[in-house]
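Hey, quick one: can you model this chain's 3D structure?
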Amino acid sequence: MRRVPYGDPDAVRLWEAMWSEIVERYGGDPGYVQLPSDGLVTILVGYAGDAPVATVAVRFKAYGSWPPLAEIKRLYVGPEHRKNGFSRILMGAAEDAARRAGATRIILETGTEQPEALALYRAIGYGEIAPYGEFSHDPRSRCFAKDLPTRVLVVSGTMGAGKSAVASAIGDLLGERGARYAWIDADALCQAGPVDADDPYNQRLLFDALGGAAPAFRSRGLGQVVVARVVEDPADRDRYSRAFRSDGGAAEVTIVRVTASEAVRFARLDAREPEGPWRDFARARTVELEDALVANDLDDFVFDNDGRAAAETAAAVVGTLGWGSETL
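Sure thing. Here's the predicted structure for all 328 residues.
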């Protein structure tokens, strides 16, 4: 299976063969229509040896009041290669591309004269929805959808390590890659007082606020959320997962930690904090917290953010996770 560019001749030939079969099954021939290039996330072609035998495309498309959703288009396997599992493989790859692009839901349209397609979609977890799109008036049209869980990336790190700057840069990079995302500086949600003695950093307030914001992000089709916040408590992973739970299930949570040397952290803190008690607290806290984060080892990945721009660290994070659209 290969990702191919828009207009790839192998993909086009397969789409033309698909169109001929559709015309044969449904009757009438309005003429072949090329897949529009706007909103494309990926085009995949499956090969048996050197022969192109199957294809699928994914695009972001908004219909009516819906936010942009990932739509499966042009799924096709040549007749001589059917019943070998190729359709499932292509659908798995298409779903993976949609996830990495920040989709909250996948939709698709097929019809009553394609019983094998109907059986496939039902078997892999798609539920039937009301008809939409250009064939919604046709009683033979059948439409399906699958909700995807929100993907949450928590950027952790001690004071002065640069977690907020890196999280912001990750958001910029995801935007450049066409992904549907939001990023949150979680510390800003916790600036409230008085604080409870047993919750000095307002963690309960944080997760209440995130739980309230999560549906708003989903309603806009934003499936990736980047959060800048220290993770000290092993239970926090589950708290993020529950806060962003949706019809797609519990959120998929990844925790990365950014690090920097003590000297670099001190320099950053001194530059942003005035002299006095708060700077003294920050210098002591960054050392204490770094030791705790290393000892707790709650992170999925650790990235060095010492001596390089936040954008460079962000690129390393996004590259490792594989997040971002494959927009063509």
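One thing worth noting: The mean pLDDT is 94.
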